[in-house]
Design brief:
- It contains 6 helices and no strands.
- By secondary structure, it is mainly alpha-helical.
- Helix 1 packs across helix 4 and helix 3 runs antiparallel to helix 4.
- The chain is globular, with a radius of gyration of 18 Å.
Length: 174
């Protein structure tokens, strides 16, 4: 397989993973997998939460495809797809765990309209502590915060924290 084709396969996989992440978040994590994800919608009491097991679960296909493409002699595209899954995982970790949830302290403050939008959309997702009634399941693609706030208001409080719909600190419109 040529490098340009491999790179296109890698980039296509990274882009496709947003759809996979959306579906997994909406129908697995907020569905039958809520028993693990619930910990992510509650205040963290230590360095780890049960929801962190999803990182391990989602790494398995990437590791298997990388191994299959590099060591097992499968189609070389498996390597690029496995790398694309890992690439999305790295991007997700950086945005979600470092920037949004501050699990690794930084001085980063979202300044671009895109970064402010995805951070605020994810924080609005977290105003609902229950399995249902939440909004914004994607991560790198997110609806406008005003649309999400209107939807939360329309749903009238199904599990929302008191006063949680206002803009998160540092993200109010300037």
């Amino acid at each position: 397989m040529t490098w340009p084709v491999g790179i296109l396969l890698f980039l296509g996989t990274v882009l496709a993973m947003e759809g996979v992440a959306y579906a997994a978040h909406r129908w697995v994590m907020h569905g039958f997998g809520w028993f693990l994800h619930r910990s992510h919608h509650r205040p963290r009491t230590g360095a780890w939460e049960l929801n962190d097991l999803y990182a391990v679960i989602f790494a398995v296909p990437s590791i298997m495809l990388l191994y299959a493409g590099v060591q097992a002699g499968w189609w070389p595209g498996c390597t690029w797809i496995g790398a694309g899954i890992a690439g999305y995982g790295a991007i997700y970790f950086g945005f979600h765990d470092v920037i949004v949830h501050g699990r690794i302290p930084t001085r980063y403050l979202p300044r671009s309209s895109y970064m402010r939008r995805i951070v605020q959309a994810h924080r609005l997702h977290h105003v609902v502590e229950s399995k249902g009634g939440t909004v914004s399941f994607g991560f790198l693609v997110a609806p406008r915060p005003d649309v999400l706030k209107a939807e939360l208001k329309r749903r009238r409080g199904g599990g929302e924290r008191a006063g949680a719909i206002r803009a998160p600190a540092g993200l109010a419109k300037r």
